[in-house]
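In line with agreed milestones, the collection of sequences with tokenised folds has grown. One record among many is set out beneath this paragraph:
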Amino acid sequence: MLKTNYQKQITMSEKTHWKQLVNLDYIGAYSLQGQDLTVEIVKVEVKRVKGENGKEEDCTVASLKGQKPFIVNRTNAKIITKIHGSPYIEDWEGKKITLYPTTTKVAGETVECLRVRPIAPKQETFDSEIAADEAKLRECKTLNELKDTFQNLRHRSDTKIIAVKDELKAVLR
């Protein structure tokens, strides 16, 4: 069976969060492994989304450059509106946001969630973070070093970083 980049990423991990196995289509708090992630919004639209229980509902979904899509809830939509100065989803295209994992209360239970930092990231910061992550990967001399380095990268789920990791993995075998 041919593995997707996402499945390859899971196998590089020391441990696998169970939600990585059931929610393959959307980015979640578990995807960030405790770190912030700066992303660029490509497009925002309403899509029919199937939940873990099989129930379908219409959700606001942001397609992200180099990442899985992000389901935008009301809280995060309000923050994006504030930091980018527009409530119109068409104006969010090409804008950057920083996601971070946290928790919230839902029906009396504490659950993991993704939130958007209330400040807009700078473009050069995002580009330099990607370049720094790529440079760290290219310094690896062994598969074990590559595995350890990849796990500690801020943008390990970015498609460019995954491609570099896969390229180096093939070379270091």
